[in-house]
Amino acid sequence: MLLLMVGNLIILPVGITFFKDENTPPWIIFNVVSDTLFLVDLVLNFRTGIVKEDSTEILLDPKAIRQRYLKSWFLVDFVSSIPVDYIFLMVDLEAHLDSE
């Protein structure tokens, strides 16, 4: 996930800045794959055990994992996983259809 995040951090701004055609198949595939993997990571975080801070014990109770994740990183992960480019694409398509 770290490599994918760093890839997005570098590839997306460079692509937006220097390449005018963002609808090429490699660009679309990269966006779809990265967005999908970020959403899968979000779902998997609800099922991943957590090591307790004070011991070597691992927390495996799904309810406790869910509560802890919702209180900690869920909001940040959720907001960062929203596929904004698809939302813009749908708005652009709708505006294009309305203009015709």
UniProtKB/TrEMBL annotation:
Keywords: Membrane, Signal, Transmembrane, Transmembrane helix. It is a multi-pass membrane protein. Its main location: membrane. It is found in: Membrane. The keyword rRNA processing does not apply. It comes from Cirrhinus mrigala (Mrigala). Residues 1-17 form the signal peptide. Residues 1-90 form the Ion transport domain. One of its GO terms (cellular component) is membrane. This is Ion transport domain-containing protein. InterPro entries: Ion_trans_dom, K/Na_HCN_channel.
